[in-house]
Amino acid sequence: MRRNLVAGNWKMNGSLAANASLLAELKAGLGHFNCDIAVCVPSPYLAQCQAALTGTPLAWGAQDVSVHSAGAYTGEIAASMLLDFACKYVIVGHSERRAYHGETSQVVAQKAVIALKSGLTPIVCVGETLSERQAGQTDAVVSEQLEAVLALLDISALTGIVIAYEPVWAIGTGMTATPQMAQDVHAALRSRVALKNRDSASLVKILYGGSMKPDNAAELMAMPDIDGGLIGGAALKAADFLSIAASA
How does pLDDT run across 124-156, given as a tens digit for each residue? Predict the structure, then answer.
């Protein structure tokens, strides 16, 4: 059985004071949820998360990682640096990184590999834009993005990744894929993994990352191939994030 994961992506939000309040509320509300829970925060706040969350069920991680281990790469963050703050997860290939920073599927794949080799769990994001969906290109787009990662991984490493399907058209727009629409893409992604190794496909987690909220979380996660969520805006509100975790 796959254990659901609810991971918050704070994006470029937060301050020491606001984070302290949010983390305290999350810790106070943590029950015996039957899922894994994590927050992926801006890198300047990793030390704060480590101090606040060590010894709790709430894991933490970063929002990006460099393909380089060290060197003259100003502004980049190495996997070893994330490990210094006891990160468990790192998001790679988020649609905003692809769109605003020109990250290709090949770069994303390299980041996933270096994260795995360093002992981090990469949350590999894939997803299509509205124009791509309207053109009937959803399967082709997400398959290409995932295949770039699968091509670099040994079979033994497949279950070390988490996949997050984030339809770009459903992020911050108020639009959400119906549970069946999301399930169809999740099933297709699992089938792609199965082409490389069927046993691994049955174990790899695939999260939904398209504006999951308390009022749609349970219905989405009731789908057979949706194993949790990558949560954006709702992750900044403790009550909403905990409600989604309870649904998992």
Answer: 999 999 899 999 999 999 999 999 999 999 999
Angle at 94 between CA 88 and CA 97, to 5 degrees: 115
> Distance of CA 221 to CAs 45, 74, 143, 180, Å?
30, 40, 22, 11
CA distance 41 to 14: 8
* Pairing outcome for strands 36-40 and 58-62: parallel
Residues marked as catalytic: 94, 166
Q: What region does 71 belong to: left with phi over 0, alpha with psi -120 to 50, or beta?
A: left
Write the pLDDT tens digit of every residue in 188-244: 999 999 999 999 999 999 999 988 999 999 999 999 999 999 999 999 999 999 999
Cα(91)–Cα(73) distance, rounded to whole angstroms?
Answer: 19
| Residues whose CB is less than 8 angstroms from the CB of residue 89 and which lie 6 or more positions away in sequence, other chains included | 7, 38, 40, 59, 60, 61, 62, 120, 121, 122, 123, 162
N- to C-terminal Cα distance for the chain? 14
d(CA 205, CA 3): 8
Going through 12-161 in order, the beta strands assigned E by DSSP cover 36-40, 58-62, 89-92, 121-126
pTM for this prediction: 0.97
